[in-house]
Structure formats: structure tokens, C-alpha cells
Amino acid sequence: MRVIDAHQHFWDLDANYLPWLADKPVSFRYGNYDALKRNYLPGDYRRDASAFELVGSVFIETEWNPVDPLGEVAWVEALRKKEGLPSVMVAQAWLDRDDAASVLEAHGHTGFVRGIRHKPKAAARPEEVVRGAPGSMGDPAFRRGFAMLALNGLSFDLQTPWWHLSEAADLAAAFPDTQIIINHTGLPSDRSSEGLNAWRGALKRAAECPNIAIKISGLGQKDRAWTVEANGQIIRDTIEIFGVARCMFASNFPVDGLVADFDTIFNGFMACVSDLPERDQQALFHDNAARIYRIQTQEGAER
């Protein structure tokens, strides 16, 4: 199976400043993440993914020093020239900041930047959602920045808990020319029957919008092994809700290395879709990422 990994990271902590890895620890859904406080570069990644035919990857911004959003782009550009990875990049930008216009324009003129990620402010629980709160997807300042994405040829990677996906649907309807990609399967952390039913309902609302796609990744649970038994139904439900053409498999490495090795996660993905037609499997592992992130494949065309 040829693979384009739709969500992965690199960092060099000796050379660059990533506050969440260099400063006081932040709250993290997998718990202790000290194991991530090491350099992770293409050689490490290729070793982790060596069992698979990795033909490309999508680098996602790493919460680099927020005062220097263009610095990460320059660093990734040098890495690409030296190592041949990543294929493309989703860069950092802060849509509600005064420099949004200049940053987005710069990203739009960079040949390998395909989109940006800005994590909107999120409530801790579904019952605490306040629509239009400062920093949220309904915040007028956020939307002013979001309106500039299509003008610069940029998509939007959205990382937010599932209880904010109705706001994402409203955003997608207001900006139908902007591709939105939900990160990490909408973060279905509550695995109770009630929690999963609510997560499915949120995904169905988002899937009504043709300009929303989703990455199946980030399915680890704190202090629990990554298994097909734990995650298989979530994977199949996501594909059923969004359809094969709008789903992509992704490793989230090295972050998801906290819960499983690369082989376990990707072999798990394969096991979950082994009964699907070969063309559907290839779409999930390769073709959809090539099309949505506009990656030039070895065949010489965007798939």
C-alpha cells in the first residue's frame, strides 16, 4: 500500500523554540509527554515508517514560537531540500492577530504551504460551549482572518473537540470556497455510549458540508494500548459518515508514538478497511491526501 501520511511533525529542539516542548508542560490528552522532548527528524520518521511504502507526507505546524510564524516555514523549506520530506506543509497562522493578512499572504506565496492551522478556543465540555466567544470560530476577529484563506489559496486544518463541530459547519457554510480538514477524528475522547453517540451526531452535522474533510488519526487514549478493538468502530463510523472520498489516514507521529508504534497504528488502519475495495483503500491511504493537499505524486499529477 502506497502511503501519503496526512498528518506528521518534525522538530529540532537544539535549533528551534517550541514552547510546549521547551517550557513548563501543558495539559495534554495523552498525559505525560516527556518522551517527545527530543529531536524528531526525517531519519527518525523513515525508521518508524520503514514497513510501509511512504511516498509523501503532510507536515503540520508544531506550535512553534508564536511570535515567528514564518520561521517554521523557512526551517521546513531547508529540511525539504536536504531530506526530501515533507511533501507539503500546513503552517502556523493566528487568524485573529493584526498580522494575519501579511502572514497569510506570505504563506500563499510559498510553493509548498497548502494551508494553515489555528486551534480556535474550545470549551472543556459540551455544556460549556459559548458560541461566538473570543477566539472561537464564531468570533468576528477569527472570521476576518478566515475570510483571507481562499484569497491566498490556503486550506484550514481544524483541531477542536467534537462539540464545536456545529460551529465548524456554520463556518464552512459561510466560506464554501475554503477547504476545512478536521484533525484527529474530531477527538472522540469520551468512549461511553453516550459520548460516542454525541460524537457521531457532531460528525454528521459537519459532514453535511461538502468542503469539510477529516483525518482519521489521534485515536490514542491515556494509559491504554492502541488496538483495533478500541478504535475500529470509530474508524468505520467516520468513513461511513464522511464517505471514503473525504477521509484520510494519518499517523500524527511522533505524538501518537506515545500510545503505539507506527506499525501498530497503520496495520490497525489496514485491518479496519481490509474488506473495502482496493481503490477505496488506496484513496484512504494515499489518493485523498494527494488531492486535498495538492501533492504531486510520482505519476506526475495531483491525484
From TrEMBL:
Signal peptide (residue range): none
Span of domain Amidohydrolase-related: 4-295
GO molecular function: hydrolase activity
Pfam families: Amidohydro_2
InterPro entries assigned to the protein according to its UniProt record, in alphabetical order: Amidohydro-rel (IPR006680), Metal_Hydrolase (IPR032466), Metallo-dep_Lactonases (IPR052350)
Keyword annotations of the record: Hydrolase
Family as reported in the entry's similarity comment: Belongs to the metallo-dependent hydrolases superfamily.
PANTHER family, alphabetized: AMIDOHYDROLASE (PTHR43569), BLL3371 PROTEIN (PTHR43569:SF1)
Name this protein carries in UniProt: Putative TIM-barrel fold metal-dependent hydrolase
Organism listed in the record: Devosia subaequoris
Source species taxonomy: Bacteria, Pseudomonadati, Pseudomonadota, Alphaproteobacteria, Hyphomicrobiales
